[in-house]
Amino acid sequence: MTINNLTRSIIGSAIEVHKELGPGLLESTYEACLFYELNQKGLFVEKQKILPVKYKGIELEIGYRIDLLVENQVLIELKSVKEILPIHSAQLLSYLKISNLQIGLLFNFNETKLVDGVKRIINN
Fold this sequence. Notes:
The two termini are 21 Å apart. The chain is of the alpha+beta class. Helix content is 38%, strand content 28%. Helix 1 crosses helix 2.
């Protein structure tokens, strides 16, 4: 599956979750439901994966966690906030750099229509 097909499938699953639940719930609820949806599609998904920081040749577990990692390729950060702020995008980009991944999806489930709360971030 190409990265574009994979991200399209992930976004479709997130929209399915949002249609079923609507806005206003906790991030953990959307995370559990999206995890389920992606697994139902046969995708390999890791939830709350520890993200160590490499510093001067050592790995430090500082407390960062990836909400969802799909097929070891796409990092997903979930929010349920009034609006996506630049700090949310910066957080996802930092996670992409630390994990050495290229593509991340930021979802804000607190939107009337989820498509208004989807942001794709690329780590160049």
